[in-house]
Amino acid sequence: xxxxxxKIYPDCPTIVRRVEIGGLTKSQLIQKFQEHSILMNExxxxxxxxxxxxxxxxxxxxxxxxxxxxxxxxLEGATTDQIFKRASEVGLDMCPLELGPxxxxxxxxxxxxxxxxxxxxxxxxxxxxxxxSEILTEDEDFPKGFYLRRIDGVLWLRGYVAGPEHVWKPDDxxxxxxxx
Length: 180
Known about the structure:
A hairpin with a 2-residue loop joins strand 7 (145-151) and strand 8 (154-160). This protein is globular. It has helices at residues 26-35, 42-49, 80-89, 99-106, and strands at residues 15-21, 39-40, 60-68, 78-79, 92-93, 129-131, 145-151, 154-160, 167-168, 173-178. Strands 1, 2, 3, 5, 6, 7, 8 and 10 form an eight-stranded mixed β-sheet that branches. A two-stranded antiparallel ribbon has the order 4-9. Helix content is 20%, strand content 26%. It has one domain (3-178). With 180 residues, it is an alpha+beta fold. It comes from Clostridium amylolyticum. This is Helicase.
């Protein structure tokens, strides 16, 4: 199978969203999660607790593009660095870390992703959407960013850890900013 014959970004199906970010502190975001029964794992709590994760006082609207690793031309999967480099080459930008919590609050009808599928270890779960954002630290044990997931009807904002050798599967979903 040749990559020339495949439809890769921007000539592939994508999900485009407008996401409003800013205007809420980290503690206000957490309060909104509680109001919507959104859960957080320990990794997402660690990201929130880190001083390098900041929120903006000003609100703005960002255009996001959701696509798969495959849509970026990686038919066999790719590392985080490879994915982020290719996204930049095709005109996609990294999201501010703050986008993850705001998108979680605005995307309340995310479908279940894993129904009838096996649980995965050291892989992105079925139905999850990873937010492509700048990594706060190179410490391999510290979370690299957020992903969204719905499990048994419960919405989650989860953090993840992925080392430089980790290979994302071709059908893993990422969200980037559109610079168009």
